[in-house]
Write a structure and sequence with these properties.
By secondary structure, the protein is α/β, with parallel strands linked by helices. A 5-stranded parallel sheet has the order 2-1-3-4-5, with helices on both faces. α2 runs parallel beside α5 and α3 runs parallel beside α4. The two termini are 14 Å apart. The relative contact order is 0.21. The structure holds 1,3,4-trihydroxy-5-OXO-cyclohexanecarboxylic acid. The site of 1,3,4-trihydroxy-5-OXO-cyclohexanecarboxylic acid (DQA) has 10 residues, from loops.
């Protein structure tokens, strides 16, 4: 059976395509899901994309991925910069974790320069727009080969 890659998204990313398009672009999360599924198909990987605005729900999605998924791609949104709970959850996951940020967080406010999630991530893709998600799935193909 094909391995599953879970693509997790934190707060406000449900508004992708409508929210600050000058920063995050015009593609929606559905567009991202379709692009990831296509790249995954080429690599023999299944993908599922989930989003929540709630920190505890994101932690529980990581717990579920422990049972179902070979790898996690995660854009934690603002929880990147605040959530020790999310870091702790990711530390319970055994497979590879790739952190994605659509914008170049290092060109932005200094509070966006620190990521708790980066302490766990096997790789980080920053500032490549929504294309970063598909790049992360491609990297999963290498890590899980
Ligand atoms: C983001 C960057 C975060 O600082 C911000 O809070 C987001 C999106 C990005 O994808 O660029 O919600 O993770």
């Amino acid at each position: 059976m094909a391995k599953l890659i879970t693509i997790l998204n934190g707060p406000n990313l449900n508004l992708l395509g409508k929210r600050q398009p000058e920063i995050y672009g015009h593609e929606t999360l559905d567009d991202v899901a379709a692009a990831c599924a296509e790249v995954g198909r080429g690599l023999g990987l299944n993908t599922e994309l989930l989003q929540t605005n709630h920190e505890g729900a994101l932690v529980e999605m990581v717990h579920k991925a422990r049972e179902t998924s070979a790898g996690i791609v995660i854009n934690p949104g603002a929880f990147t910069h605040t959530s020790v709970a999310l870091l702790d959850a990711l530390n319970t996951f055994e497979g590879p974790v790739i952190e994605v940020h659509i914008s170049n967080v290092h060109q932005r406010e200094s509070f966006r320069h620190h990521s708790y999630v980066s302490l766990r991530a096997n790789g980080i893709i920053v500032g490549c727009g929504t294309e970063g998600y598909a790049l992360a799935v491609r990297r999963m193909g290498t890590l899980l080969a």
